[in-house]
Amino acid sequence: MSQGYLNEQITRSLAYMLRHQPEEFDLELDAHGYGEMGDVVRALNERLGEPIEEGDVRAAIDSGDRQRYEIEGDRIRALYGHSIHIEPGEPAEPPELLYVGVGSRDAGRAESFGLKGGRRTFLHLALTYEDAQETGRRIAPEYAVITVHASEAFGSGVAFYDRKSLFLAEEIPTEFLELGEVHTDGILRAPRGDRFADRRGGRHGRRDDRDRNRGGRGDSRGFEEQRERPSRFDRDRPRREPDAPREETVARPDPRPRSEEPAPRTAAAPEPAKKAASGGFGLGIFVPPAKEEAPREQPAEREPAREPTPEPPEPRETREPPEEVADDSAGGFGSGVF
After folding, report:
1. pTM for the whole thing?
2. Residue (of 82, 84, 4, 14) closest to 48 by Cα position
3. Is the Cα torsion angle 239, 242, 244, 246 positive or negative in sign?
4. Mind listing the domains of the chain with CATH numbers?
5. What pLDDT, in 10s, does the model give residues 46-56?
6. How much is the pLDDT for 246?
7. CB-side exposure of 296: number of CA atoms within 13 Å?
8. How would you label 223-232 residue by residue, b for 16+ Cβ within 10 Å and e otherwise?
9. pLDDT tens for residues 306-328?
10. Residue 112 three-state SS
């Protein structure tokens, strides 16, 4: 990894950690946005997967075109650009004029309602007109530069905070603003993946030739040359062979002779109508018809069996008791022995 690329990765990661999402990296920032340098270096090693040291962090900060970070002892913080709440510190007296670049639509609203921080916690006010113009060019294709009468606003109670390369403010009323002319040389942001992502020229989308030819030959070739020679992004892809032209198929003649008159068709006898079988639910299941059975003869009803009449009992013979005959032979008391 080159040193320039490493510096860019470190500064981008610092912006994300110290301005927007410190809790994602287990960083604890104080009220003014300071974090421990050792914790920041550890988080950079985990995020980038490279052996980062404190010297690499200091070198990356010094390589920037403006001072965006501040190191105080063993602590580090971002000077501006926060989306999280921090304490800005003590107010400082600003210069007479400050500048801010905004989109053309926001310029009209600022003239009516004043300036506010928006997505960021504070307004970022440039020290020069050129810096504000460069900021506006990156914001929208059509933009304007607003001049802020900072010294008058400070005398009226508006607080400004010095961040070395710019000033911060929470809100500025309309009476201290002066709207400038609208510029149309801003950068048109194209969707991601578009080859011509940055276009200049406002609503017409004209590209700047200086940017197009920067960094080698670029796309300064003619249109026909671009079509003949693929770009470096397409050279590694397998080339698709052109499809072979399709051959025209000729209809072959039919060797069989065609009869002039069609043969007459014999009328088929109509088939007897079949009795529709009763189907299941929705007639979706075929059920064979039930066979008709001959009616069974019902057996004649039998009369209930009568109980036989009991025959009269036979007359029993009545035996008369035998007449008692005096048996003189029977022995009695006083009788003698027979």
Report:
1. 0.54
2. 14
3. positive
4. 3-78 (1.10.10.970), 97-183 (3.20.170.30)
5. 999 989 999 99
6. 63
7. 3
8. eeeeeeeeee
9. 655 556 555 555 455 444 444 44
10. helix
